[in-house]
Amino acid sequence: MGQTNAEDVFGKRIDRCLTDALLKFSGGIAVGTILSLLFLKRRSWPIIMGSGFGVGIAYNSCERSLNSIR
């Protein structure tokens, strides 16, 4: 009764990865926007850089989660 399929475990990990990526991407955009508006004369590169950092961190976290053996 307590058994789970490998596909279910993989699906849950993918769902967690996508949620994490969306949150970190949004957070990067928010931080980049705030920095751009307050300190950097409304340049676009902090927004792009913040979102890139967010996606990169989420990718690293997702890769570790999917490669872990349990």
Outline the secondary-structure elements:
Elements: H1 6-38, H2 45-67
Helix pairs in contact: 1-2
Strand content: under 5%
Distance between the termini: 19 Å
Largest sheet: number of strands, sense, barrel closure:
none
In N-to-C order, the SSE pattern is: HH
Summed over residues and divided by their number, the pLDDT gives a mean of 86
Radius of gyration: 17 Å
Provide the structure class. Answer: mainly alpha
Task: Give the beta-strand count.
Answer: 0
Helix % is: over 70%
- Give the uncertain stretches in residue-range form: none
- What gross morphology would you assign? rod-shaped
Tally of individual helices: 2
What does this structure look like?
By secondary structure, this protein is mainly α. It is 80% helix and 0% strand. Helix 1 (6-38) packs antiparallel against helix 2 (45-67). The longest helix has 33 residues, at 6-38. The protein is rod-shaped. The two termini are 19 Å apart.
Summarize the structure.
The protein is an all-alpha fold and 70 residues long. It contains 2 helices and no strands. 80% of the residues lie in helices and 0% in strands.
Main features:
70 residues; mainly alpha; 2 helices; rod-shaped
